[in-house]
Amino acid sequence: MSDQPLVLREVESPLARVIINRPDKLNALNAEVIGQLAESLSALGRDDTVRVIVLTGAGDKAFVAGADIAEMAALTPEQAREFARRGQRIGTLIDELDKPVIAAIGGFALGGGCELAMMCHLRVASPTAKFGQPEVGLGLIPGFGGTQRLARLVGEGRALQMILGGQMIDAATALDWGLIDLVAQESTALEAAEALAGRLARQGPVALAACLRAVRRGLQMPLDAALEYEAALFGGIFATEDMKEGTAAFLAKRKPVFRGC
Question: What is the reported pTM?
């Protein structure tokens, strides 16, 4: 175990920052990092003062340059399967959070780093960021959801270009393909992500949570079932204090004060 935290957690309510802290290893993901990342995200999910989470990597060279190859090379097939499952569970954890998670991507987001970015609800990148799934060059395949999330975001053909060819793409291409949502042209990726987080944090937190559930879970359903799910969430919102405050503030021409209930 490392003496220093490999994942830093900083809270400046209503925002929180999660920083993968292995800059000397380009923030590569190993078992210890994955465990600390899960712990940090779970803790912030329980913190009612936090409304939006920004996930980034330490240093200016990489968001996350991949998984830790030295650690992976020693795994047995069964250990590798469990390692993949542990990485995939970070995505499940983010999916189950009722608050937005924004990836702030500077430098390389490769392999497990690209997969981690795709797990987040929104992705903001610097103009110099690079994205890729280069696992085939190591005789591997993506194992943290890359074969599934990438195709859902950019389409099968473009996903296969990246996965089969180990192709790396720049931020402009990633934006064009739909892999990321914003390129920070006049600030760092972290600054742009935190500006976006600030805008989201001013919205009704109950409504944000319902929107996340409607979109993320609805995408896994047939359309008819997803529409019924949306209607149920819409109806449920009308029992909340936030809905009453939001509509009252609009009619009174004042800013709402949301309490998250």
Answer: 0.94
